[in-house]
What we know:
By secondary structure, the protein is mainly alpha-helical. It has helices at 2-23, 31-42, 46-49, 65-88, 91-98, 101-112, 119-136, 145-167, 173-192, 201-227, 230-233, 240-252, 258-282.
Amino acid sequence: MYKGVLLGFMAFAAYAMSDAFVKLLHGSLPSYEAVFFGALLGLTALPFIKRKSDRWREVIIAKRPSLWLVRAVFGAIGSTSAVMAFTALPMAEAFALIFLMPIFVTVLSVIFLKEHVGWRRWSAVIAGFVGVLVVLRPGFRALGVGHLAALICGLSGAISMIALRMTGSQEKRVTLYGAGVIGPLLLTGILMLWDFRWPQWRQWMLLLGYGLLAALGAVLLMLATQKSPANHVAPTQYSQMLWAVAFGYLLFNDPLDWPMLIGIVIILGSGLFTFVREYKVTRWWRRTKVV
């Protein structure tokens, strides 16, 4: 079990480093172009995720095509908005807003899955949004497209998670991963037809780091969920905040004042509590294959 948790920490460290690489582009390429090359490099993880009994066509052919399409579309939206958020905001601030995803999942589960949510999880939802107000401080500081992009990323991730719940254990890992890679690859590829900028050598290096580290994170996360229950691995994603603070301080000179720190703690606490309550109440983790 501990091996799986350790692999989870390693996976999300790789994801955080991937985000740092894309932030180092400083918006010199369109966000959708960065996502396109990131998804293209993400295909390198497929041979490690695919089992011997799987067929290559199952990357795009799902048993529930509508849910595959939902995850593909919102995977593209989430990835593109994440790049925009990391470009415009300090990493810790971007992660804080993106980490509203469990809160969004709770709200959407009531709407789409008709789940019963008790007062504890509703309290976590309220606390999460209070944390957002503390971080954003509307009226006291300028808000921009980066904040909106981070919120859209968190909401897109929540919609993908709801689709994953509805899929359950029906789909194979390679199909689940395929939705998250093929969708962004195709949709951002279409956007590149209108505006494409050939990357320079330094941008190529950063794109390689962005895509390959994300692919490494996916493989490590798959291995983690093979070694440990998914509910034990999932909370390790919050370790990304530590990496975000470290990278922000060492690489980007990101500001981190006390109100923002307090808001981040509130959001992380409400998110972690939501994870714990979701496992105790819904038990959906046991029947879902997480990639």
